[in-house]
UniProtKB/TrEMBL annotation:
Coiled coil (residue ranges): none
The protein's name: V-type proton ATPase subunit C
Highest taxon in the source lineage: Eukaryota
InterPro entries in UniProt: ATPase_V1-cplx_csu (IPR004907), Vac_ATP_synth_c_sf (IPR036132)
Role played: Subunit of the V1 complex of vacuolar(H+)-ATPase (V-ATPase), a multisubunit enzyme composed of a peripheral complex (V1) that hydrolyzes ATP and a membrane integral complex (V0) that translocates protons. V-ATPase is responsible for acidifying and maintaining the pH of intracellular compartments. Subunit C is necessary for the assembly of the catalytic sector of the enzyme and is likely to have a specific function in its catalytic activity. Reversibly leaves the enzyme after glucose depletion, causing the catalytic subcomplex V1 to detach from the V0 section. Subunit of the V1 complex of vacuolar(H+)-ATPase (V-ATPase), a multisubunit enzyme composed of a peripheral complex (V1) that hydrolyzes ATP and a membrane integral complex (V0) that translocates protons. V-ATPase is responsible for acidifying and maintaining the pH of intracellular compartments and in some cell types, is targeted to the plasma membrane, where it is responsible for acidifying the extracellular environment. Subunit C is necessary for the assembly of the catalytic sector of the enzyme and is likely to have a specific function in its catalytic activity.
Species name: Chaetomidium leptoderma
GO cellular component: vacuolar proton-transporting V-type ATPase, V1 domain
Subunit field text: V-ATPase is a heteromultimeric enzyme composed of a peripheral catalytic V1 complex (components A to H) attached to an integral membrane V0 proton pore complex.
Ranges that cross the membrane: none
A single GO molecular function term of this UniProt record: proton-transporting ATPase activity, rotational mechanism
Keywords: Hydrogen ion transport, Ion transport, Transport
Length: 390
């Protein structure tokens, strides 16, 4: 299934003879996408210099919104183990499916009063986005940390003999303890070289106690041996084992250690479930907030760019086209074909009637209008923005 892509456009009313939205929908084509009205309030316009600055600020804020929404989507994917269906269920905005929210978008006049200066609205949106981004990041990092700790504890319980806890496995009575001269070492040996170990361990280093090896445990991959040496040659014996790719294991008997390990595992498992629930709730809230903020930022972008492009009096139609990445190219081509003349000399047609661009005049006209296409984006003769939701 193709992901949904949204395109926001605005065009001057003067170019339409009939209902502008109907004409726009006809240009887009029913097969290419659904054309919906997009309501934009009347904001305080301010000065031309102010508008140019706002356009720059909104372009940067738009990038931050895109990154924040992508981060929340990744967090939800991590929390829900990549289950796309479950992730989709969490992607609600104000308890509505995201496409329903965007398709029926209304500016939140209570939260963002339209009579406030544009700069103030932009600052508020930026702060809100930063807060939600920080909250989601902090909670997801906490969840990742707890999950890693739990996985390490579970490996200790269920891994092979080279990694798992030896507390429930080793009988301390098999080991030499409290001796002034001797000590026992636990060595993990791949089972397929078990005979090599038994044959050679006594001569690996000086002062290995003959016939001291005891098989303590075995699993599908490894065998665990206890070997006794004199303390003064212990370091050399352990080093020789490592050279043979045999793994010395640290072990210290602690009274009640087995029960303590189980209690710690249970405690971290409970914490992981708790933090998972918190991270999921915050991921859901984060998606709702970040998409909602992004929709308001895009509304301001369309408004500011519309004033800069078409001037005053402000008479324009704005629409949201709901499509997919494949059809979006056809939508763009249809819009260019119908409205490229708004770019003046910047656009022309070749012998076959296809739209072409004169980049030289385009650059000078944009500079004269105080406009600059965002880095990496293509200039259009009309107000055009894409919203790609992950």
């Amino acid at each position: 299934m193709q992901p949904t892509q949204y395109i926001l456009v605005s065009l001057p009313l003067r170019i339409f003879d009939d209902d502008p939205l109907t004409a726009l929908a006809s240009t887009v084509g029913r097969d290419n996408g659904e054309t919906l009205p997009f309501s934009i309030p009347s904001f305080k316009i301010g000065t031309l210099d102010g508008l140019v600055q706002h356009a720059d600020d909104l372009a940067k804020l738009n990038g931050a919104c895109e990154a924040a929404v992508a981060k929340v989507a990744d967090s939800l994917k991590g929390i829900l183990d990549g289950d796309e269906d479950k992730v989709a269920q969490q992607k609600m905005v104000n308890d509505k499916p995201t496409d329903h929210y965007l398709g029926t978008f209304q500016w939140n006049k209570v939260r963002y009063r339209a009579d406030k200066p544009l700069g103030e609205l932009i600052d508020n949106l930026q702060k809100e986005l930063q807060n939600i981004d920080n909250d989601v990041k902090a909670k997801f990092n906490q969840y990742s940390g707890v999950k890693t700790t739990l996985a390490a504890l579970q490996r200790k319980q269920t891994g092979n003999l080279s990694t798992k806890s030896l507390t429930p496995i080793v009988d301390p009575r098999l080991l030499v303890q409290d001796s002034e001269y001797l000590e026992s070492h636990l060595i993990v040996v791949p089972t397929n070289v078990r005979k090599d170990f038994i044959r050679s361990y006594e001569t690996l280093a000086p002062m290995v106690v003959p016939r001291s090896s005891i098989q303590v445990a075995q699993d599908d991959e490894f065998t665990l041996f206890a070997v006794t040496t004199f303390k003064k040659t212990s370091a050399e014996f352990l080093q020789k084992c490592r050279e043979q790719k045999w793994t010395p294991r640290q072990y210290k008997y602690v009274e009640g250690g087995k029960e303590e390990e189980q209690r710690e595992l249970d405690r971290v498992a409970r914490e992981e479930r708790k933090v998972w629930g918190e991270a999921l709730r915050l991921g859901r809230t984060g998606w709702s907030e970040a998409v909602m903020i992004w929709a308001h930022v895009m509304t301001l972008r369309v408004f500011v760019e519309t004033v800069l492009r078409y001037g005053l009096p402000l008479e324009f139609v704005a629409a949201l086209v709901k499509t997919n990445p494949k059809q979006a190219k056809k939508v763009k081509a249809a819009l260019d074909s119908a409205y490229s003349y708004l770019g003046g000399n910047a656009f022309g047609r070749d012998k076959r009637g296809r739209v072409t661009k004169d980049d030289t005049s385009l650059t000078s006209e944009m500079a004269a209008a105080g406009l600059g296409a965002a880095e990496g984006s293509e200039y259009t003769a009309y107000v055009y923005y894409e919203i790609d939701l992950p």
